[in-house]
């Protein structure tokens, strides 16, 4: 698909087709328009964590198989590393302001506070929540990209502006605000050039199909109050969640996870040959990454990268 998805950047780069944050959905256009009672077949691809586990498990075999295992493990490690690099570049590309930080680090705290004081919104990846092996790898990758291994590493409009002291300094003399403004304006331009969808309807048509609350949320980028959604605490074992606008299946039951944020959350969306990724990300112009239905463009919420667990190594929270 030409349209960039949330993982469009890395999906295009990972020639093994192993972009991890979506699962394959075998479905055709006819059945996609009738969402009720559909079955799905989706399998999350191997994760970075499992590649790392395989690396350790590969040790301790006989010499011959050990060599073979080492070869496989090396390939897996290289693949995991390339994947992590693509993932980091993607976060930098999709977030107007992106901070790689450690949750306990006072310098990171300073940088974040300096930005918060100026009302600057930013994406955060807390490296200490990635597990020590991945944390070290990410720092190596950041060193390669920015010349420094230390945290925080702060990116504005895709460029590294430095660490905590640099961020504070740029915030104090007003140049940070200006840089962020320029980055947001450039993201806005990108967004306005990419908003045509397969299913286009006028507001009148949408209003005739949706109740006023759904219209406000899906078509006017509205937000429900936290804890109010009927699916917030709903964790079914089977089935899937579909777009409230057009019925396109978006997330499997297994991609939904418990969260305390007050809204239903998922760690990966569907992808199919027919549609590409069923959910696409676009900067919303305010510094956050909005997610919309790939088919009809209805607003679904935002994506954050702060939910790293063993089961969700990408840390995505949709
Ligand atoms: Zn839709």
UniProtKB/TrEMBL annotation:
<dbReference type="InterPro" id="IPR002109">
    <property type="entry name" value="Glutaredoxin"/>
</dbReference>
<feature type="domain" description="MsrB">
    <location>
        <begin position="203"/>
        <end position="318"/>
    </location>
</feature>
<dbReference type="GO" id="GO:0033743">
    <property type="term" value="F:peptide-methionine (R)-S-oxide reductase activity"/>
</dbReference>
<dbReference type="Pfam" id="PF01641">
    <property type="entry name" value="SelR"/>
</dbReference>
<dbReference type="InterPro" id="IPR002579">
    <property type="entry name" value="Met_Sox_Rdtase_MsrB_dom"/>
</dbReference>
<dbReference type="InterPro" id="IPR036249">
    <property type="entry name" value="Thioredoxin-like_sf"/>
</dbReference>
<dbReference type="GO" id="GO:0005737">
    <property type="term" value="C:cytoplasm"/>
</dbReference>
<dbReference type="Pfam" id="PF00462">
    <property type="entry name" value="Glutaredoxin"/>
</dbReference>
<dbReference type="GO" id="GO:0034599">
    <property type="term" value="P:cellular response to oxidative stress"/>
</dbReference>
<protein>
    <submittedName>
        <fullName>MSRB3 protein</fullName>
    </submittedName>
</protein>
<dbReference type="InterPro" id="IPR011057">
    <property type="entry name" value="Mss4-like_sf"/>
</dbReference>
<keyword id="KW-0560">Oxidoreductase</keyword>
<dbReference type="InterPro" id="IPR011899">
    <property type="entry name" value="Glutaredoxin_euk/vir"/>
</dbReference>
<dbReference type="InterPro" id="IPR014025">
    <property type="entry name" value="Glutaredoxin_subgr"/>
</dbReference>
<comment type="similarity">
    <text>Belongs to the MsrB Met sulfoxide reductase family.</text>
</comment>
<dbReference type="GO" id="GO:0015038">
    <property type="term" value="F:glutathione disulfide oxidoreductase activity"/>
</dbReference>
């Amino acid at each position: 698909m030409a349209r960039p998805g949330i993982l469009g950047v890395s999906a295009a780069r990972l020639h093994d087709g192993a972009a991890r944050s979506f699962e394959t959905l075998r479905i055709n256009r006819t059945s996609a328009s009738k969402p009720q009672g559909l079955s799905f077949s989706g399998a999350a691809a191997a994760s970075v964590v499992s590649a790392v586990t395989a690396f350790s498990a590969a040790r301790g075999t006989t010499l011959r198989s050990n060599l073979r295992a080492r070869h496989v493990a090396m390939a897996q490690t290289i693949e995991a590393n390339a994947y992590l690099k693509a993932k980091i570049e993607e976060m930098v590309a999709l977030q107007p302001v992106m901070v790689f930080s450690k949750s306990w680090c006072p310098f990171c705290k300073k940088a974040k506070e300096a930005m918060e004081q100026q009302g600057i919104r930013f994406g955060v990846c807390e490296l200490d929540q990635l597990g020590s092996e991945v944390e070290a790898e990410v720092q190596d990758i950041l060193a390669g990209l920015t010349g420094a291994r230390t945290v925080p590493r702060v990116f504005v409009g895709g460029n590294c502006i430095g660490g905590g002291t640099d961020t504070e300094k740029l915030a104090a003399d007003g140049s940070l605000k200006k840089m962020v403004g320029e980055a947001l304006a450039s993201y806005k331009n990108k967004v306005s050039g990419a908003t045509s969808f397969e299913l286009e309807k006028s507001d009148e048509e949408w209003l005739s199909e949706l109740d006023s609350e759904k219209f406000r949320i899906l078509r006017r980028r509205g937000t429900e109050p936290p804890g109010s959604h009927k699916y917030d605490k709903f964790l079914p074992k089977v089935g899937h969640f579909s777009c409230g606008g057009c019925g396109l299946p978006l997330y499997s039951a297994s991609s939904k996870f418990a969260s305390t944020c007050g809204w239903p959350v998922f760690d990966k969306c569907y992808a199919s040959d027919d549609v590409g990724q069923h959910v696409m990300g676009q900067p919303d112009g305010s510094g956050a990454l909005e997610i919309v239905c790939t088919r009809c463009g209805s607003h679904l919420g935002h994506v954050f990268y702060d939910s790293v667990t063993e089961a969700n190594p990408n840390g995505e929270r949709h």
